[in-house]
Every structure is written in structure tokens, then in C-alpha cells.
Design goal:
Blueprint lengths: L7 E3 L8 E2 L1 H16 L5 E5 L19 H7 L7 E5 L4 E6 L5 H5 L6 H7 L4 E4 L3 H8 L4 E4 L23 E3 L3 H10 L3 H24 L6 H16 L3 E2 L4 E4 L24 E6 L1 E3 L2 E2 L2 E6 L6 H20 L6 H19 L6 H6 L3 H4 L45 E4 L2 E3 L2 H9 L1 H4 L4 H5 L6 E3 L2 E5 L4 E3 L7 H8 L28
Parallel strand pairs: 3-7, 5-6, 7-8
Antiparallel strand pairs: 1-2, 3-4, 4-5, 9-12, 10-11, 11-14, 12-13, 15-18, 16-17, 18-19
Helix pairs in contact: 1-2, 7-8, 9-10
Length: 507
């Protein structure tokens, strides 16, 4: 591969992060190495994303690259195709042949040499030349295309194709499990970008925390976050639709969609659950903070919040290579159940509650997920790894894998008072023997709490990329105008590193 053309692949200036070309060069090399280890040759063909328009209009939606293609090539523009010659360790980029009108409406039509240098590939041709190039270079080679199931969406990756491809030997089976598994384990270059976007997102969460007041609207909290990550971090995209759920809205796990568009007023005394993450050059952050809108926790809010925080701390202290994600989920579920006993909503033996998966009614989502070029990153249920469990809570886990070094995951336990699930707890005999019905019913319309960190698995444990206030004391202090970050982290179990806070301003 073209090692001599390294430098900056992507960067916006103004203190934002420069992405090195070697990030994608290294990923292509990793893919070639895996094919070599499998004693499989040929050529990999990957299709980039296409520019889409809104419904039947000519309005072009803001383009975001297809994630597998970005992993291998780092191309920011639409309409490209990439090939990796596994046998000769070479890469080819195919660019769209643009009409002359493009120069008038969209800007300069750049030559192939520009893309050759920008993306550090070995050759560049036009997309309409793919049949000729493949007939010339790869007539006797197997073409490996991407085709496999995304276990989160249920959708299949779209394989690349070209006119006359049926004359070649095409393999749809080999590439997907290899490249998906490679995306599970991050390189140092990828980790630096993930640290950066988590840093920016953490700062934005703190800014929201400082500005929130009763009688504002949920959408204003979203606006503060969006403004901060773009102005200060260059994050034009978010990793997902912002969830700004306050009061009863916080019991809706994926609030913020078109049917519930962060449009409710903030009521004094209620909790805010803010799940928001920036995206920088397709790399995602996913962070959730929960706190009282007026800056002061009530006694009940303290019990629920501390129970979820205890779950975060327990998992982050136990998380290391060799443990299973399902066991981490159960550890978190136990802590949440313990807090519900303390709250008076449940009574009895927590061990017995665990046996019937009562925790799945109060934390119906999984503990967390892989994180990278997609918020719910790929590789959760690949062949050769544990299959999805079927029990409440566990069935929602986006992976059941054994944890390994250089995985990046979210740790996001929660406790929610959802009417439908509370009804099950009260009506189902296997659950209701543990339930204090009258006390539980007091929490209808109360909402919920989620705390979410982005963590890297290391040889010894974890590094926590998230740098937001977490303890009750920290949150109340910041909301009163106190200093953040603190001079000393009084909760070392969270493994936060504040040394990079504000590093952009000093560049």
C-alpha cells in the first residue's frame, strides 16, 4: 500500500483533530493480513455511500459515508468504490466521473491525482472504468463483496456490483465476518479519534448542565449541545438523534424521534435524561447524563440515581479481558434491584429476583454496546461467538461476546418506571411477590435514570473516555456554578482522565 503518502486525511483546523492517512492505510493492511492468514486471495470490492435526495425533491440530504467503506478508505465524498488487491497488497479508488455542470453548481472538478494523494491509494480510476480495470487486472481473481446481516438493524450490507460482474468468480461469504470483526478491535489511531469525540461530547454535556433551567424546553438542551460540538469540535453530525427526555419522557428509551421530538417543557423538580453524542469523521460518541433540572436531587432521586451509578462503578471495576458481557449486564441489574429495594418499591431476596429476571422490567435495554464508526457498532453476534440470549433484559444486549482488549463499549445501566413494565411487575405472579404495589405506583410518570460512559478495554481493565460529572455532589456543584473538571478525581473507580480537558485551546 502507498505508505509514502501519509499525512492528514481529514481535519477542519480551528483546534479540531487531524485524522492521519495511516488510520485507513493500517485498516486496509489489517484486512489483507487476515485474508492472508485465512489463505484466501483475490480482490475486495467495497461500495461507498450514494448522495440521496429528500423524497421526490432535489434537496440533497447531508451526506455521511457508509461505515465499512470509510473504515477502509476514509473517503468523505459520495459515489466512490474501492478495491483492495489482497494478493499484491494494493488499493484502487474509483471516483465518479462528474458532469461539467458540477463545476458551476458544486465547485472544482478535481483530477484523479488529487484523490490518489488525498487517500493514499495506489491507483485511481473512474467508476465507469471498473469493468475494464477488473477485466484487465482481476479476470482470474475471486471478487470478495460485502454481504452480511447487521444484528442490530436486521438489514444486510449492500454488496458492490458492476456491469459484467457475472463473468467473474464472486464470493459473498468470506469478507463480512472478517471485516466486521476487525472493526470490533480499534487501532491506536482510531482510539485517538474516539477519545477526541468523547471529549468534545463530554464538554458539550457539561455546557448543557450549566445552562439548564426550569421552564426551558427539551429542544433547547439539544440546541446547546449541537451548537457546542460543532462550534468547538467540528462535529457536523451527531452519532444519533439526541434524546433530551425530561420528566415522564425519560421513561421512553429512544425518545427524541419525530413522534416525540424533544418538545416538552422542563418542570421544576423533575429529572432530565440527556443521551447525546457527537460524530467526528464518522467516529461516534454516546454519552448519557441524568440530573435534576433545578440542580438539587430529592431523596427519592438520590436513591435511584445512586443505584444506577453503583451499577456503572461495579461494571467498570469488573470489566476486563476474559469476562463476558452478559455477566456484566447481570452485575448491573443486581445493583439496580438493590436500589429499588432501598427505595421501597421492591422487597425480598435479590438473588431470587435475579433468578426470574425482574431487573429486566426496570432496565429493559442491554447494558451497552460496541462503539466505533456506528453508535451500535458491528460485530456483536458474529459466527463463533455466543448467540443472543432470550431472557428479559439479556435479550436486548447487542453483544454477548467475551470481552477482549481494544474493544470500545458503552456502559449504560438505567432504571426506568415504564407503565407497561410496571403493570407486568404488579400482575405477574413470578414478579409481584417482590413488589410493594402502592409504593411502586407512586413512580408512575416519574421517568427514569441512565448513566452512560464510553470505555476502552485495556489489558488491566478500562480507560474511561467520558469526562462528565457523575456523583450527586459533582452534579449539584457544577449546576451551582462550581469548577469542572475537578483538581482531583474523588471517584477513581470511574477511571476518568481529565488531563486532556481543554487541550484544543492550547494548541
Amino acid at each position: 500500500m502507498s505508505e509514502g503518502k501519509q499525512g492528514v486525511d481529514f481535519g477542519l483546523g480551528q483546534g479540531t483533530m487531524d485524522i492521519p492517512k495511516k488510520l485507513h492505510i493500517k485498516n486496509r493492511q489489517r484486512l489483507v493480513t487476515k485474508f492472508s492468514e485465512a489463505k484466501t486471495g483475490g480482490v475486495v470490492l467495497l461500495k461507498g455511500g450514494e448522495q440521496l435526495t429528500r423524497h421526490d425533491s432535489d434537496h440533497e440530504d447531508l451526506f455521511r459515508q457508509e461505515s465499512y467503506f470509510h473504515w477502509a478508505f476514509g473517503v468523505t465524498e459520495a459515489g466512490h468504490v474501492g478495491a483492495i488487491d489482497v494478493d499484491n497488497n494494493k488499493s484502487i479508488l474509483f471516483i465518479p466521473r462528474l458532469p461539467q455542470a458540477y463545476a458551476v453548481w458544486m465547485g472544482e472538478i478535481l483530477p484523479p491525482s488529487y484523490f490518489l494523494n488525498k487517500y493514499a491509494v495506489d491507483e485511481v480510476f473512474y467508476v465507469d472504468e471498473i469493468p475494464t480495470v477488473f477485466a484487465d487486472k482481476f479476470k482470474e481473481s475471486t471478487i470478495h463483496v460485502l454481504h452480511g446481516l447487521n444484528s442490530d438493524s436486521g438489514n444486510y450490507a449492500e454488496p458492490a456490483s458492476f456491469e459484467g460482474m457475472d463473468a467473474f468468480s464472486v464470493d459473498k461469504e468470506t469478507l463480512f465476518p472478517i471485516i466486521a470483526d476487525l472493526r470490533v478491535f480499534k487501532t491506536e489511531e482510531e482510539l485517538q479519534v474516539l477519545r477526541y469525540v468523547a471529549q468534545i461530547s463530554s464538554e458539550a454535556h457539561v455546557q448543557v448542565m450549566k445552562e439548564v433551567r426550569p421552564n426551558m424546553s427539551e429542544f433547547q438542551l439539544e440546541a446547546i449541545f449541537l451548537h457546542y460540538i460543532y462550534l468547538h469540535g467540528g462535529c457536523r453530525h451527531t452519532a444519533y438523534t439526541c434524546i433530551c427526555a425530561c420528566g415522564p419522557s425519560a421513561a421512553v428509551l429512544h425518545y427524541g424521534h419525530a413522534g416525540a421530538p424533544n418538545d416538552q417543557p422542563l418542570k421544576d423538580g423533575s429529572l432530565a435524561l440527556l443521551d447525546m453524542g457527537g460524530e467526528y469523521n464518522c467516529f461516534c460518541a454516546d454519552i448519557t447524563c441524568s440530573y435534576p433540572i433545578n440542580g438539587k436531587f430529592t431523596d427519592d432521586q438520590k436513591i435511584v440515581y445512586q443505584g444506577v451509578l453503583n451499577a456503572v462503578i461495579a461494571v467498570e471495576q469488573a470489566l476486563k479481558p476474559g469476562v463476558f458481557w452478559t455477566d456484566m449486564h447481570m452485575l448491573a441489574s443486581r445493583e439496580v434491584l438493590e436500589s429499588l429495594v432501598k427505595l421501597g418499591c421492591l422487597h425480598g431476596d435479590v438473588d431470587e429476583m435475579m433468578k426470574v429476571h425482574l431487573g429486566g422490567l426496570f432496565m429493559p435495554h442491554g447494558l451497552g454496546h460496541l462503539l466505533g464508526l456506528d453508535t451500535h457498532d458491528v460485530g456483536g453476534y458474529l459466527p463463533g461467538h455466543p448467540e443472543r440470549r432470550t431472557e428479559p433484559g439479556l435479550k436486548s444486549l447487542r453483544t454477548a461476546r467475551e470481552i477482549q482488549e481494544n474493544m470500545v463499549l458503552t456502559v449504560e445501566p438505567g432504571c426506568y418506571f415504564i407503565d407497561s413494565e410496571m403493570n407486568k411487575a404488579i400482575s405477574d405472579p413470578k414478579f409481584n411477590k417482590f413488589v410493594n404495589k402502592d409504593r411502586l405506583n407512586e413512580f408512575r410518570g416519574w421517568g427514569g435514570v441512565r448513566i452512560e460512559d464510553d470505555v476502552l478495554v485495556t489489558a488491566e481493565g478500562i480507560d474511561n473516555f467520558t469526562q462528565t460529572p457523575r456523583t450527586i455532589e459533582e452534579i449539584e456543584s457544577v449546576m451551582e456554578g462550581g469548577q469542572w473538571p475537578p483538581k482531583e478525581d474523588k471517584v477513581p473507580a470511574l477511571k476518568r482522565d481529565f488531563s486532556t480537558w481543554g487541550w484544543r485551546q492550547s494548541k
